[in-house]
Amino acid sequence: MSQTTGRAPLLLSPMLLIYFLCFLFFILDTYLFQGLFSEYKDIEPEYRPVEQATRLAYLLVAAIAWRDLDKNKQNIEANALQTGQTLLFFSLVLVILENNWDLTLRESILGRIIFASTLGSVLVWLSWLAFNSDWQAPSGYPLLYILVLGILGLGQTVDAFHDGIVSNEAAQEIGTNITLEETTELFAAWVLFHAAWIWHNRDPKAINFWQNSDGLKLVGGLSLLGVGNGFLAFTREGTGGHFVSNQVAILGALFIILGIYLTYKHLSLIHI
């Protein structure tokens, strides 16, 4: 009983603060920034703070999975091993997808079906692993992966409306709200992080690394990597090239280099 009680707060804390920040990003991106900066709405949504926070969540999931697998490679259970490997691969794929490198393929009907079925299968698999976990997890843990699936499905529906796949006035009105798609991806990314965080903290000592300076520096390195990656991400077809200047693109490259350095340096501290 004490073990269950001790793990229960993981289902919420520190996630309440993170979810509040996600909502704050949505307010800033949708209303405040567009009111303060007249040209803000002309910036591709992929490069705004909401999208940067989404990238950070996926990068954190990858870092958590990598560090957990590396640190526990001698004694990790089969279920936890499969969960970690899936989280690592899945999160890295999602980072790549955020760059729109697959945009032409994904915006076709067949591409959407393949994309949805693949992501859905992975998330159902993660939920099944969570339900059959070898450690005592919070009862709501498996449902987090299903929640990610539902939120991503909502975002893809909005994206389909935005691309005019459905010829309906109400659908087109929803599709014009491009921030809705990005916001759903933001919450989906951090719910996935929430699930990965619970899995990572099956060992209560795992949180010690993230509470010291090395853990904070790793988060800082991932943040720089995500921001720099956003500056250099592939733009939509027909936009005439990258929306930022060459100077900002160079700054993005520098952020990536510094982010990779900090990430590599502090991911290597696996024995802390």
- Annotation, overall tally of beta strands: 0
Taken from the alpha-carbon principal axes, the silhouette is globular
| H/I helix tally | 12
Largest sheet: none
Mean pLDDT: 77
Strand proportion? under 5%
What low-confidence regions span 5 or more consecutive residues with pLDDT below 50?
1-9, 236-242
Q: Please compute the radius of gyration using only Cα atoms.
A: 19 Å
Structural class: mainly alpha
Fraction of helical residues: over 70%
Can you write the helix and strand succession as a string? Answer: HHHHHHHHHHHH
Gap between N and C termini: 29 Å
What is the domain tally? 1
Q: What does this protein look like?
A:
This protein has 272 residues and is mainly α. The protein has one domain. Helix content is 72%, strand content 0%. It has helices spanning 2-7, 15-36, 49-71, 78-98, 103-106, 109-131, 141-162, 169-175, 178-200, 207-211, 213-231, 246-267. Helix 3 (49-71) packs antiparallel against helix 4 (78-98), helix 7 runs antiparallel to helix 9 (178-200) and helix 11 (213-231) packs antiparallel against helix 12 (246-267).
